[in-house]
Design goal:
two-stranded antiparallel sheet, alpha+beta, Nucleotidyltransferase, domain 5, 11 helices, 42% helix, two-stranded parallel ribbon, 282 residues
């Protein structure tokens, strides 16, 4: 199904007309911008001096009077052209944009919203496609490729630490809001570095030394584990018993809390700690 743009026209408390047009493959913002175009172009042809546009997207309202290059620019140009004639012919005319969220279900806006969402029009061959729709399709395809690759053990690695974003769902690669992991661990460089070492199991612990430096000591400093593993640190090491991580797949919030409660964990002896002496001048 394709998006549908709808505009209802009211005057003195009575609906006088309406317009409904399929928009092809478009985002919700594109469809709302098209609906504003339908409304502005139609109402500027009426003998009126004051126009009120009711919309649930102020972003679309701002884009409506922006003639620069963007998705749906043709709609903006049509709106600007209609408003130019409108303001030229009437010295005391005005146009107002009112923000009305759909969830408010205000009668005038809700009728148009229901009209748009209840209308189903199949997509034909070679439909009109907006720039934002193409961007969204490309981003979705990229994200699907990331997640497919991420689920492959050879790509993820045998030692990668799975973390849950909620009660059940595992964190997945994402491009939005800093991605699946950085939005939780990106508040400081030190926290991000320690979390990265723990997640990749590439940290200054016995398990790492056993794999890459077998001649070095692998015993845990607590004295109760012959090989200091990541899971031992999380759940059993008495040095970090204040807030242990007992789940094999912990939530990312518990994981970050563990790191904050134990600032010495996954830290190299000479790194991640402020130096007591000032650096030497160059």
């Amino acid at each position: 199904m394709q998006a549908v743009s709808v505009a209802h026209f009211w005057r003195l408390g009575e609906q006088v007309s309406s317009s409904k047009t399929p928009t092809g493959r478009a985002t919700a913002l594109d469809a709302e911008l098209f609906a504003i175009r339908l409304g502005v172009v139609k109402t500027t042809s009426f003998n009126v001096k004051r126009i009120v546009i009711i919309t649930d997207s102020l972003t679309a309202a701002r884009r409506a009077v922006d003639a620069s290059v963007h998705s749906g620019q043709a709609h903006s140009l049509a709106i600007v052209q209609a408003l130019r004639s409108f303001f030229t012919n009437h010295s005391d005319c005005s146009i107002h944009f009112w923000d009305c969220p759909s969830k408010a279900q205000w009668s005038l806006h809700f009728l148009a919203h229901e009209d748009a969402t209840s209308t189903k029009i199949a997509v034909r061959r070679h439909p009109a496609t907006s720039l934002d729709a193409l961007r969204s399709k490309s981003a979705t395809a990229c994200l699907d490729a990331w997640r497919t690759s991420f689920m492959c053990p050879s790509s993820q690695g045998r030692h990668f630490l799975p973390l849950k974003g909620g009660i059940k769902n595992l964190l997945q690669p994402s491009y939005a809001k800093g991605g699946g992991w950085l939005s939780f661990i990106g508040e400081s460089v030190t926290l991000c570095a320690r979390a990265t070492r723990a997640i990749l199991n590439h940290a200054p612990i016995g398990e790492f030394r056993q794999r890459f430096f077998p001649a070095e000591c692998t015993q845990c400093p607590c004295g109760y584990c012959q090989v200091e593993t990541r899971q031992h640190i999380f759940a059993n090491c008495r040095r970090f018993a204040y807030f242990p991580l007992t789940d094999l797949v912990p939530t990312v919030k518990d994981f970050v809390k563990f790191l904050k409660e134990h600032p010495s964990v996954f830290v190299f002896p000479s790194q991640d700690r402020p130096s007591s002496e000032p650096p030497e001048p160059p």
